[in-house]
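Justification of computing resources. Each target in the renewal requires a structure prediction run like the one illustrated here; the chain below, 516 residues long, is used simply to show the kind of job we budget for.
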Amino acid sequence: MGEAAEEGGGRGDEGMAALLKWAAHMGMSDLPWPPPTPSISSPVEPSSSSSYCLGRTLFVSYFSEAGGRGLAAARDLVKGELILRVPRKALFTTDSAMADEKFASCVKRHQHRLSPTQMLIVCLLAEVEKGRRSRWYPYLVQLPRSYNSLANFTRFEVQSFQVEDAIWVSEKAVAMARSEWKEAVGLMQDLDLKPQLLTFRSWLWASATVSSRTLHIPWDSAGCLCPVGDLFNYAAPDEDSSHEMSDSKQETTSLSIQLLEHSSQEGTVHDADQPDGFMQRLTDGGYEENMNSYCFYARKRYKKGEQVLLGYGTYTNLELLEHYGFVLKENPNDKAFIELKAEVCTSSSWPRDSLYIHHDGVPSFALLCALRLWATPMNLRRTVGNRVYSGSIVSVENEVLIMKWLAKHCTDILARLKTTIGEDSMLSSTVDKMIDHPSCLSSTVVLPHMSELREFFEAHGLTMEVADYIGMPVKSRRSLERWKLAIQWRLAYKKMLQGCVFYCENLICCLSSQHV
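Resulting structure tokens:
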């Protein structure tokens, strides 16, 4: 990639310090609202944290078990409190890039053929080419050099998902990225970008940057890149609210920061000096016209030193992987979709994407309804329809029948997959050790069911006997990280199916004992 992308290794303390100083110069601040005015008797020392945009409310920290680099509370925070403001002039948008008349003239000739997101990706690559001349250079050099989103997965990594739905989603993501790149190449050539920035690899990098880091703004559907604001790590919605939303068909998969209604007054700030509409604000982050800034708010109470998180929305692990390049070990919003007979899908009016298994193995409300109607004779379905849609069982016999069918179906699916839960757990643990403790590779015992590990090395022209993680080519190490994510995803998927089997068997026992 261009200079900024390649120098993305400047992510050490010096690079971060430079970013925070630049951010302060651009007007970003974590000062409480309204900001205190320095007095003559107590001036702000130049050497203090005032030269940085953070330090009063937030500070950059590293959370090894929770997302890596992120933002921590510099003091106790109250739910709903303003914690960071990023002025519009600091946001990287298509509009900001179009301030260059020559650039804008060239872009407008292609605008009708490209989506707003493609336009933003091109603008990012053009900005990267400027290197140190770019206004956003301190920010650009802090961006990751590579991403693990689905569009970056190789064929070997895609096939490692094992589940057809996941493979299809991954292949679609790769194909879509390549198609969008081909559509935009003409514009990038007209802009006379450097050859290395015209490649599919550079497009993947810029596309993943936009997909994983943009925030919603009202004037451009492509969103904006928000320096410092994109350091917040992901907070999954609470498990209880997730189930409630799923059962009422109110799931959301928006790529913007999602609505968080502050319905409870407990713990909220009642300061009259807070921005207009504070009590009615529905998001934990959003662009506010009256402040001409992107504003971030504490989504809950935080103790000093705790990681401060941001809710991106309700995502399954596959969706997180597709857009952001990570999965959660415990994701209350995860879902397992299983193959279903056509008669099951058409037995009710529920859409296909509402028929799934929750992260804890419990069938979704819609799936239970569909199975109950499917197991009911055709001539009786209209009679029992209202009862089924209200959540009631048809009969004990009907419920036992569908539980037995669902348990067997999940068991059959697990049996058809190439590896078991136990094998995936061992493989995942081995890959973790390879990455976290590189020296362990030479002493790793390769059991028969660990042949997939050998296949990975062979696919990269390596041998397990002589290779070690540190000595691997960078390309192989990045592939190992993505492969690890595929293993983690399929392991979570299988555990959901196993959990469903347990759920069904327990319910059968309970119903049978009551029916005796």
